[in-house]
Design brief:
Helix content is about 35%, strand content about 20%. It contains 25 helices and 33 strands. The strands form eight sheets. A seven-stranded parallel β-sheet has the order 14-15-13-16-17-12-18, with helices on both faces. It is globular, with a radius of gyration of 32 Å. The longest helix is centred in the last third of the chain and has 17 residues. It binds zinc ion (ZN) (2 copies).
Length: about 850
């Protein structure tokens, strides 16, 4: 007996689920459905089926379509989503939407065709002309006839096409439909996620030729058409025109099969193929497109020469997987110690035992070359999920995993939700990387989700890093995680020597501000003479950091944010690095009209220019978000650098991320400590991590490396410990500091941002919450605020915030829940509140 109702989680900012009537549709829990919701149709996930009729008065709507006959989210992933929803206080439907990369599989497609009545009306109007009287205005009438005229041939035309061709508004289409002059049709349906291609196939001609009949080339083929093997046979020669013969000849040469796409290259009229199909000489089959995965045979073994430490780490990971019990491992390996090789070997081992694994990598790390390497090692067993895939490609990779065709998923943040079968191992590489935290709802941290998912499945999770986060390191030394160390670089290569340059002394010696110290210039010169390579880090994009009027002191700010605009010289504009707003460079001060407009501060673009001036013969490349628009740019610059086509590479933190260029013997650090002055308790940790990562780029080949570290804070412990490669020293000191200040990992934090594009509203809402926090008992939770957020205006919104700290996650969470309820009662819209649990950035 099938159930009558289903509860659906919808991607709307409401903390509730919705009940719909099933009406016999083949609905499954964990499957997707399309439902009507406030004038819209939404895709949601079915949570459960039941027969509990809601009250008599409630009029339930029915679901429009069921998209899946088997669950797309299994019980484990449904439960994981529910956990995320509770922990991060995010609406369940929004969590599920973010877990599934399948949005592209459903699009509402409306199409129109002319009716008999419409055809009649069209002919009448042609006969009578425009003199026909009508209650409609002439313009409106013209618009209606334009639509009828466009549809006159009787085809079914999609709404988007029809509207762009005729300029008709929705209202005109609605009127025509109401008059029954045109018919509206809903072509929406769940598409098969596998992309298909059309194959033209030579056919045995029928004994007596079929009469020409209208046969659509597109549309869903019948199942029998899929059975293409042996279906392609030779046609007997008939009366064929030269174009037709050309197509036949090409098909013959290709053993009777060619994609329609390839035939289009032949420069014969498009109708030719259609004619051949109608005459029954050629048939068109629709087949799954060759997958994005190149057909490669996986190597049977991963042949790495391991150091004893690597071997030990691998064995420990293998044991843990085989034990089939939850285990978290922190793999702390210095830069260049060969962590990746250990990951790959462990994943190979898991695959050999018939189980699955996930490797998470930071946003920038997944270049095409890395992907090619992974395919080389794992062949079609690997599915790669990264941001440059199209929606369709992403969906295809997802389905390959869910069907068990691929058992390894590699990807950025959201790959933590990959539907890998029999998941035994999750590895989070560069676990400290901030791209693992999503900065929109749901604001989950993939590293933490990896641990939750592994626990759920009795699997092993490995966090790898040269500079682990304080949180993970604390878990390791307190025994919650196992700690594995790779203390040495491969082949006993030494860590680079670091020389600190006190830029205050440089200033005194030169009598003016200098960007490049004498020492750094000397060392770069030496590298150029020896034919070795250098990298220089300046963690700021653009040419000049800000533009100031000397007459009135005004700094030019973004129109929509309380942020100084950065001067980008090559593109001749001022740019906001937070929202992307740009404007022309003013000649006069926009405030007082004086022409004393000055460009101050230095970014990577200016540094590149300065290096060109200092080293005119050097070949210099730059890597930052202005020169790298995607993975391909990233790889192109790295390849050029790796191939020795560049002597010097300057850039932002992008150059510090785990790549391996053996010719680099010098790393210069120019202004990487500015973060130390930011109002953020993670500033020291971030600086230490960045410095350590960039130092790690030096001396990875046979020649030893050197780092010249310029700083204005030479005594700061983050700088000192980074200069001495002293990880434990840094962690010890930083942990003590965090303990005193009641910061993570000793407490949990949540940042509550109240935002509105109207300042009065933002203030009023934060006042409501502030009063409530004051009056409410909230034992064990410290509430700071309301205060203006460090960036008080961002993307047009004014922002005030509360910072909540508690030693008990549970208390923190329940207080936030009650706060949200209170906000709702006080009519503070949910969309004006951001609750960021375990906030990474407090700006
Ligand atoms: Zn001015
Ligand atoms: Zn802005």
């Amino acid at each position: 007996m099938s159930q009558q109702f289903c509860d659906v989680a919808l991607p709307v900012p409401l903390d509730t689920t919705f009940t719909y009537k099933v009406d016999g549709a083949p609905v499954v829990a964990g499957g997707r459905v399309i439902v009507p919701f406030r004038e819209k149709r939404l895709q949601g996930i079915v949570l459960r089926l039941h027969d509990e009729a809601p009250g008599e008065r409630v009029k339930l709507k029915s679901i429009i379509a069921a998209l899946d006959s088997t669950p797309v989210l299994d019980e484990g992933l449904l439960a994981l989503g529910a956990w995320i929803s509770r922990y991060y206080l995010a609406p369940l439907g929004e969590v599920y939407r973010c877990m599934l990369p399948l949005g592209a599989e459903f699009k509402q497609v409306i199409a129109y065709s002319i009716t008999e009545r419409g055809t009649e009306a069209l002919y009448q109007s042609a006969a009578v002309g425009s003199s026909k009287r009508s209650h409609l205005g002439p313009e409106r009438q013209m618009a209606e006839y334009a639509v009828l005229d466009y549809l006159a041939e009787g085809e079914l035309v999609r709404e988007a096409t029809l509207r762009s061709a005729t300029g008709a508004t929705r209202e005109i289409l609605r009127n025509l439909t109401a008059k029954k002059w045109i018919a509206r049709e809903d072509l929406s349906s769940a598409r098969d996620a596998r992309r298909t291609i059309k194959i033209a196939c030579l056919k045995e001609p029928e004994p007596s030729p079929r009469p020409a009949q209208e046969q659509r080339l597109s549309g869903t083929p019948s199942p029998s058409q899929h059975a293409s093997d042996g279906a392609c046979r030779e046609p007997s020669a008939g009366k064929l025109n030269p174009n037709q013969q050309k197509i036949i000849a090409h098909l013959r040469a290709a053993e009777g099969r060619l994609s329609v796409e390839e035939l289009r290259q032949l420069s014969v009229p498009k109708t030719t193929l259609g004619t051949l199909v109608r005459r029954g000489i050629v048939e068109i089959l629709e087949e799954p497109a060759a997958s994005a995965v190149p057909a490669m045979q996986p190597r049977n073994t991963v042949d790495f020469l391991f150091t004893p430490e690597q071997q030990q780490a691998l064995e420990r990971m293998n044991q843990s997987v085989e034990a089939r019990q939850f285990q978290a491992i922190l793999l702390h390996g210095v830069t260049g110690s060969g962590k990746t090789a250990v990951y790959l070997a462990a994943m190979r081992q898991v695959l050999n035992s018939g189980r699955g694994s996930i490797l998470l990598v930071p946003e920038i790390g997944l270049t095409p070359r890395v992907a090619a390497d992974l395919y080389g090692i794992f062949g079609e067993e690997v599915a790669i999920l990264h941001s440059s895939l199209s929606d369709d490609e992403r969906a295809e990779q997802w389905h390959r995993l869910s069907r068990g065709e691929a058992r390894i998923a590699v990807g950025t943040r959201s790959a933590v939700f990959a539907p890998v079968k029999d998941l035994a191992l999750i590895i989070v590489d560069e676990e400290q990387d901030h791209s693992y935290k999503q900065d929109e709802t749901p604001r989950y941290h993939a590293r933490d989700i990896a641990a939750v998912r592994a626990k759920q499945l009795q699997a092993t999770v490995v966090f790898g890093s040269a500079t682990p986060s304080l949180e993970s390191y604390h878990n390791a030394i307190s025994g919650k995680y196992a700690l594995l160390r790779l203390p040495d670089r491969v082949q006993h290569r030494p860590l680079p020597e670091v020389e600190l340059i006190d830029m205050r002394e440089e200033f005194q010696a030169a009598g003016k501000e200098r960007l490049l110290s004498r020492k750094l210039i000397e060392e770069v010169t030496l590298r150029l003479e020896r034919g070795e390579q250098s990298m220089i880090l300046l963690n700021r994009r653009g040419y000049s950091a800000f533009v100031m009027c000397r007459a009135c002191g005004d700094i030019i700010q973004c129109r929509d944010c309380a942020i100084a605009l950065t001067h980008h010289k090559r593109e001749h504009k001022l740019l906001c690095h937070y929202c992307g707003y740009q404007q022309a460079i003013p000649r006069l001060c926009p405030k007082c009209g004086s022409d004393y407009v000055q460009f101050l501060g230095t970014g990577s673009e200016k540094l590149e220019d300065m290096l060109h001036a200092a080293f005119p013969t050097a070949r210099i490349g730059r890597m930052d978000r202005d020169t790298v628009r995607g993975h391909h740019d990233f790889e192109r610059i790295l390849n050029a650098f790796g191939a020795g086509e560049l002597d010097l590479l300057v850039g932002t933190q992008m150059i510090a991320k785990g790549h391996d260029v053996h010719g680099v013997t010098l790393v210069g650090v120019v202004g990487a400590d500015t973060a130390l002055s930011l109002p953020d308790f993670r500033a020291a940790e971030r600086t230490f991590q960045l410095l350590t990562q960039v130092e790690g780029r030096a001396g990875r080949g046979s020649s030893p490396g050197k780092v010249v570290l310029q700083t204005y804070f030479p005594e700061h412990y983050a700088v000192q410990f980074a200069a001495h490669h002293d990880f434990e020293g840094f962690y010890e000191k930083e942990l003590r500091f965090r303990g005193w200040m009641h910061y993570p990992p000793f407490t949990s934090v949540a940042n509550v941002i109240v935002r509105s594009d109207q300042q009065e509203l933002a203030l009023r809402y934060s006042g409501i919450l502030g009063k409530w926090f004051e009056g409410e008992r909230h034992e064990g939770v410290r509430v700071m605020g309301p205060a203006a957020a460090p960036i008080i205006r961002l993307k047009r919104e004014y922002r005030y915030h509360f910072l909540l700290k508690s030693a008990s996650r549970e208390r923190l969470n329940s207080l936030l829940r009650v706060m949200l309820r209170h906000a709702q009662e006080q009519h503070v819209p949910r969309s004006n509140l951001v609750v960021d649990v375990d906030a990474i950035s407090l700006l």
